[in-house]
Amino acid sequence: MSEVPMTEAIRKVMDFVQTDHILQRYPEFPKLKSLWHIFINKCGVDQAQLFGKNNNLRDTFRDKDNKKVIEAEEEFKQRKHDVIVACKDFLEKYKNNLFEPQITSIQKKVFKLEKEMALDNQVKGRTEKKQKKPKATAFDLFKKTKEGKYLNLPEEERERKLLRQFDKLDPGQRNIYETIAEKI
């Protein structure tokens, strides 16, 4: 085995010690369990059973209306918040013992989690389903072709006149509008 110069060995050790992987060795370093892990715990499934009889577990996890999934999501959001607070506390407590790359790594983790929390809150506010536009009818399409006509009349009267014109169309022309309306 070839000998490694002492300076090279020290540099390699220092490079390793400065990485964020060393942070995991601190017993107080906050760790976030995944949503899947929290869901499995809520279902009372241990790791040995996970791959055995619970083939429908993943399908249940995808069902966002399931009570256990909702509970797991709420707990996951709470844990995210707790990890953010714990990371800030950890950073404050060990600031003098950490290297700059480790501090940066923790700050990035906090920023990422805060951003995820903000996005979760935004998505939560927009859960209302969008109203579907009613399907365009043949008459609606006919009205669009006559946008410039009868503009001086009130809307109701204008629609009545256009409806009379639409009713007077020969079957061939009317069929064209109906075919286009079905395809849209």
Supply the key terms.
184 residues, mainly alpha, 9 helices
Using only C-alpha atoms, the radius of gyration works out to 32 Å
The shape, in one word, is elongated
Distance between the termini: 75 Å
Number of helices: 9
Mean pLDDT: 84
Approximately what portion of the residues adopt beta-strand conformation?
Answer: under 5%
Please describe what this structure looks like.
5% of the residues are buried. The protein starts with 5 loop residues before the first helix and ends with a helix. It is mainly alpha-helical. The protein folds into two domains: 6-125, no CATH class; 138-183, no CATH class. Helix 2 (35-43) packs across helix 5 and helix 7 (138-145) crosses helix 9 (171-183). It is built from nine helices and no strands. The protein has helices at residues 6-17, 35-43, 47-50, 57-62, 67-94, 100-125, 138-145, 155-167, 171-183.
How is this fold's topology laid out?
Layout lengths: L5 H12 L17 H9 L3 H4 L6 H6 L4 H28 L5 H26 L12 H8 L9 H13 L3 H13 L1
Quick structural overview:
With 184 residues, this protein is mainly α. It contains nine helices and no strands. The protein is elongated and about 95 Å long.
